Amino acid sequence: MYRVHVGGSWLPWVSNADTKWMRSVQTKYNLGGTLDTGASYAGIDGQNINGVEIYIYEENEIYTKPQTPIGNSKIIQAPFISQLGKYPTGCESVTTVMALNHIGIDISVDKFIDSYLTKTGVPFDPNISFGGNPRYTSGYGCYAPVIKKALDKALSGQKYTAKQLYGVSLKNLCSNYIDKGIPVILWATMYMNTPYISSTWTYNGKTINWIAPEHCLLLVGYDSSHYIFNDPLTYQPQTYYSKSSVEVAYKGLNYQAIVLEKKDTSTPAPTPAPVYKYGAVKNPINGKIYPIEYYENGKSYYKEEHINEEKTTRLVKNSFDVAKFISGLAFDDSLVDKMDKAPLIGSIYGIVIGGITSFSESWESLYIDVKYYKAKSSGRRWANIECGESKYCNFFNNLLSLKNQSMRALYGRWSGANMYSAQVWESTVNDFAKGQYAKFKGIIPNNSYNYDIIFTFDERRKEDKYVSQIFCGKDGKMYEYAHIYNSEKIEIVVKDFLGTEIDRINILPQMNPLSELPQDKAALFEFMKA
Among 465, 466, 464, 468, which Cα is nearest to 294's? Predict the structure, then answer.
């Protein structure tokens, strides 16, 4: 590239190179001034040139074809077409035609551009159209969805189909396609230069960041140190680029690729009925099936980036028929087996730790919400069913402290306790705690001691709308899983008649948060076949 000094100022840089390359060099080497991408010479007629500034660049990441590849290798002998001269910004079209010629489709670059490629002016969305004209240096380019759309038209009635790939590693592209003789149409940068945002514009309300120097080329092989391409920006096939430079360029263009595969003409096997481990629910609005998931206490889960696909379905006593359920056909019975080996969270201390539907005497304040989700990338759908009870949740909000709450002291603060007289309530708690102490310790309790149950709650309970999850088992059975935080405790405290503490045991870790819904409540859930 060079520029000249005329009349007291520097004129724009000129070159016989491609427009995209000139832009990439200006950014890469921090050259000041402007570019004249339409001329290969500089000067003004009739004026003297006072100075010339010349730069010569060697892109040392490009390798001409060696005699033999290095180490483990694979090379596909695919047709080669150069874009130089006739198609200065037509790398996507030229590369695609190389791939089409490889599978035996007789088509020219001109035919592909004129008959199949969607082209618009600038500004544009590279996911919708090619910006400009591939035959002009002023053209920009396009991304994989545009070429996929063009290929769908070009391959109509053929034995091949175009498959668009996103996020597939270069290693997997080689093992899944190159090793099987399928070249890959791949988006990277010119000469594997470092990608950068060269321009930004707005199109139909969307901000477009143009990544330069954008390029499309045909991946045809690899060896131990290089990825090998039919690069239309050269004059010969099989250009070698270092693996590290390709990784950076491929990532910069957002891991886009396309392959051409033979259509599967075999008779598909019958689709087996879906199997849902924890059952599924049919959304009453869109009719789609959402497998039910639940989250175990104390475990961390990776959650895909997702959206709430439909409005939450709220189930109350008179509207359980708005959502249809499918049994958990492959339900994990080990969870149910644990129910026989550990006490349920229910009974008298279920009042303050989960088990909402299991003991709720009134349905007026009970609610069960079915929430529907869809992952943004994979499209996977799932549902969570969460249960709450407004009076129960208000109970936590009204406690001044959530630590060291005595069950004996609940009298007067919890309506369930107030069904008893104060004396009867205290005796009831004492007898219950004594029985549980004997069960957990395996001893005969001392009747002269006083027994109580002390709760320590997590502060998050004050904000909780839900206290349990619900999912399906086999044959229409329904199960409830109580939310428990790691910091929480249920302790049996034993004191002598003087108030001296004799023993204290935390029984919560030995208790099972899972319980089966009573038949009268499980019967409210309407089931359907998968």
Answer: 468
